[in-house]
């Protein structure tokens, strides 16, 4: 932002972005990762990926977004594909399940707020304020609980990769896409995440993909194609 002489947002836009990072991003992360310690990973992931449905419903009510037939079908296919790709195994403690159900609610509000604020502040400004706000809150948590740094070069490499690739680049590209396609489409497109995870796990860790995961991936791909057709009809 400094290099491009981009001014920081002000007023309500700045406050909204701070809340997105300090409460939305942090709250969702806390609920999700805490839930993983109390419930099975499959159950937590399935509950998290309810957020496309929540975003779609809230967009229709709050923003009067028209949810056409192809979008509804794409949403159903994406959720079904996610279920098949991740798989549901094991249960968990009631608190863990509650936290896992809270995470998609927070994330949905985060996406909807981002869809509006990104248009006002711009992609780079939105990402910068959100990440800085989340950093401040997490920094305060570290001051209270103590800092546990990586002890190996591989550990530092992983932290750097997560910080730059999975956070800075990911947040910027998500907001850029959100600005272009809107909250509902962005949420459905995000269901490609478990498919990507499965493919990478197979390539780097040798995990078997299996027929159900292949079918799940194809359903998500079909959902993306339907979304593209829906947008072409809308714009055409």
Structure description:
The protein has 236 residues and is mainly alpha-helical. The protein has one domain. The chain has helices spanning 11-36, 41-48, 51-62, 69-86, 94-121, 123-145, 153-189, 192-205, 210-235.
* Helix-strand topology string: HHHHHHHHH
Shape: globular
Estimated share of beta-strand residues: under 5%
The parts where pLDDT drops under 50 for at least 5 residues are none
How many helices does DSSP assign?
9
| Gyration radius over CA | 19 Å
Largest sheet, strands/sense/barrel: none
SSE order and pairing:
Layout lengths: L10 H26 L4 H8 L2 H12 L6 H18 L7 H28 L1 H23 L7 H37 L2 H14 L4 H26 L1
Helix pairs in contact: 1-5, 1-6, 2-5, 3-5, 3-7, 4-9, 5-6, 5-7, 6-7
Q: What is the compact description of this entry?
A:
This protein is an all-alpha fold.
List keywords for this structure.
single chain, 236 residues, mainly alpha, 0% strand
């Amino acid at each position: 932002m400094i290099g491009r002489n981009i001014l920081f947002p002000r007023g309500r836009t700045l406050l909204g972005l701070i809340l997105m990072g300090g409460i939305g991003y942090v709250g969702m992360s806390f609920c999700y990762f805490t839930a993983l310690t109390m419930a099975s990973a499959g159950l937590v992931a399935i509950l998290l990926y309810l957020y496309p449905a929540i975003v779609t419903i809230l967009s229709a009510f709050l923003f009067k977004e028209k949810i056409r037939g192809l979008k509804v079908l794409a949403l159903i296919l994406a959720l079904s594909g996610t279920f098949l790709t991740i798989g549901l195994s094991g249960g968990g403690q009631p608190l863990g399940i509650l936290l896992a159900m809270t995470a998609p609610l927070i994330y949905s509000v985060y996406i909807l707020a981002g869809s509006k604020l990104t248009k006002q502040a711009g992609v780079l400004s939105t990402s910068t304020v959100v990440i800085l706000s989340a950093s401040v809150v997490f920094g305060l948590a570290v001051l209270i609980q103590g800092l546990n740094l990586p002890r190996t070069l591989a550990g530092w490499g992983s932290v750097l990769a997560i910080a730059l690739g999975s956070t800075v680049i990911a947040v910027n590209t998500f907001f850029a896409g959100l600005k272009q396609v809107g909250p509902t489409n962005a949420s459905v497109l995000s269901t490609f995440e478990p498919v990507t995870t499965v493919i990478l796990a197979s390539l780097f860790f040798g995990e078997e993909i299996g027929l159900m995961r292949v079918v799940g991936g194809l359903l998500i791909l079909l959902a993306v194609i339907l979304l593209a057709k829906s947008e072409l009809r809308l714009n055409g």
